[in-house]
């Protein structure tokens, strides 16, 4: 059996849930199952489309109004499907050939473009696998993420489930799970002091972690400047991710005295959970992966900004008393002064996090997908639609040497065509005048 998780390397929001499910499958060790995370941007050689998507996403990170305008205007499934079919005309044949070659039993789409491609292929009987949609936004029910034509849509909050059903999606095609997190992000039980020692950090000071995702696009320098200007006695750890320019600038700044502020600069790291658990406070984006990964370590989060698709996650954080929204360095420094003066605030927010009872849904999702793969793999892969007609025509060509075999093949093809026709309604007899 084979399960494919389709994603694209545009930001981490689509890859993170897929990688979390894949990693959980690896730990479960199903002997009869192969699970792969497939970057379809590369597998289908979507160079032009990937370039356009990446350029647009990088612009959105710098100028949030771009994504806000798109997100509010794109809550129209018909419009988005038309656009995806126009831009994807060159890639649909490649996708169909890829599915025919790889023959997965279950496919999971984490990106709306691939969801629309799968819908199209299913409509023309070129999709044999069971198809599942994963909406990476846990509190959002934007129509672009969902599909009424595929087998199931996974959501990660009751709010999202209710709203998409209210928009017209059948409740039978919506399944609710906890948000999937990579098993490596399990809650750390080691004390912060020991973790700081292992990470090469000072053990005692109040520690603030600035982390704005793998791309390192965020106001880290502005927030650090506000802390230095106020002269607070804190340790600031900045994870720059792939932003080499930010890392170089901060490493240069770390060589100069900054009063009582201790600065530690890191590039791309693979042990982010250790840094989160070693901190007293985490500052970052409101992407659901970073929010849930931070809260799982019982650390409150400060959200510096949010895009349109992340607004509901930000609202959920604030309404549950597990974090704050600070749009400017001045607001953040004011909050930090309050937390340093009253450590009871942090204890209260950590208690709020515990009450949420957060856990990863990766194990449940893996169990569901495995059962789906077993059911689907047990069905015979009988050809459908145009493929059946082609096979009948080939059989006719192979067996036409004898009249009996030829007649049998013709009758078989005729039966297939007859079944494919819509049933005719009986004509009404005219009523007498």
- Could you give the count of β-strands? 12
| Spatial gap, N to C terminus | 67 Å
CATH top level assignment of the largest domain: Alpha Beta
Number of domains: 3
The main sheet orders its strands as 2-1-3-4-5-6
Range of helix content: 40-55%
CATH homology group of the largest domain: Glycogen Phosphorylase B
β-strand amount: 5-15%
Counting helices, strands and paired strands, the structural category is: alpha/beta
3D architecture notes:
The protein is built from 19 helices and twelve strands. It has three domains: 2-182 and 362-377, 3-Layer(aba) Sandwich (Rossmann fold), CATH 3.40.50; 184-356, 3-Layer(aba) Sandwich (Rossmann fold); 386-419. By secondary structure, it is an alpha/beta fold. The chain is 49% helix and 13% strand. Strand 5, helix 8 (158-166) and strand 6 (174-176) form a beta-alpha-beta unit.
Descriptive keywords:
49% helix; 19 helices; Rossmann fold; six-stranded parallel β-sheet; 433 residues; 3 domains; alpha/beta; single chain
Compact description:
This protein folds into three domains: 2-182 and 362-377, Rossmann fold (3-Layer(aba) Sandwich); 184-356, Rossmann fold; 386-419. 49% of the residues lie in helices and 13% in strands.
Helices and strands, with pairings:
Layout lengths: L1 E6 L7 H14 L5 E6 H4 L3 H16 L2 H9 L3 H11 L4 H11 L3 E4 L2 H12 L6 E5 L17 E4 L2 H9 L7 E3 L15 H7 L7 E6 L8 H11 L3 E6 L4 H11 L7 E5 L5 H7 L2 E4 L3 H9 L4 E3 L7 H9 L3 E3 L3 H13 L2 H13 L5 H16 L8 H14 L3 H18 L13
Parallel strand pairs: 1-2, 1-3, 3-4, 4-5, 5-6, 7-8, 7-10, 8-9, 10-11, 11-12
Helix pairs in contact: 1-17, 9-12, 10-15, 18-19
